[in-house]
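User: For this week's homework, look closely at the record that follows, marking any run of repeated tokens, and judge whether sequence predicts the tokens.
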Amino acid sequence: ESRRARMAEYLFNQVQELKSQMETKGKKKDTQRAKVDDILKMIYNIISICKSFSNPNTLIDNSISFGVETDFLPFGEENACILQLGRDTNGKYCEQAYDITEDEFKQMTAYIAYLWRDESNLYARRKLKVFEIPLGQQQSSLVWVQLEGFDNK
């Protein structure tokens, strides 16, 4: 557990350093923003797991809650990060992970969401459904999201 915390802290510090280098104006700022977004879309999944905001091994039937650290999301849908929130049980009843075999687990489809932000909103896309979450009222950069009711997954 402390290894996870150290990894998350290291990644947070590296991203903060990159963001501080981005404090320029004009075309150079856009270039720096693009670099930061490229890095964030690659590492956000790791940050989310290390901070226990999501777990790619969670069994998901019809709803999932997960945390999003908005300060570490890339800007723009074209830079969206891919976050595996768990494994889709496809309606198969599984109260606990030990109710299924290892082979069954490996065959379950990954339950994926795409995340990005702009200046005032967080966006989550699951398949073709896009959810817009206003950030204006947030006191913290941590937002908890719940996706539910996907009967046709």
